[in-house]
Design goal:
single chain; 107 residues
Length: 107
Amino acid sequence: MKPRIIYSAITVDLVRGEAALSNMFPEYEPLNIDSSALIKSAISIEKSVAKTEKLLIKWARHKYKIYKVPEIEILKQEKVYKAFFYTEFKDQKLLVDSVKGVETSAM
C-alpha cells in the first residue's frame, strides 16, 4: 500500500492552549512592538507541537481509515501574535480579537 501524504495547517493559541485546523498558513507582517505589550505564552512551543500532533492524528482518524499511528513531519513553524484592540459599544468597553471578533468585556 502506498503511503498517503496529507498537508494541513494547524494554529495553536499559546495563551489559551487550544489547537485548531486552519485552511491556510497565516499571513503576517513583521511589526516592532514593545515586549511589555505582548501577552505571555501559557504553554511552551514543545507543548504546542504535541497538541498539533494530537489534533492531526484525531483529524486523520476521522477522515481516513488509519490502522497505525501516522508519521508526522512539521514543514513550517512560526510564532506570530494576533492583535487585540479596545473599542466601545453601547457604553461598554470591549476587547476585540482581530481574528475572531469580539472577545470579552473589558471592565
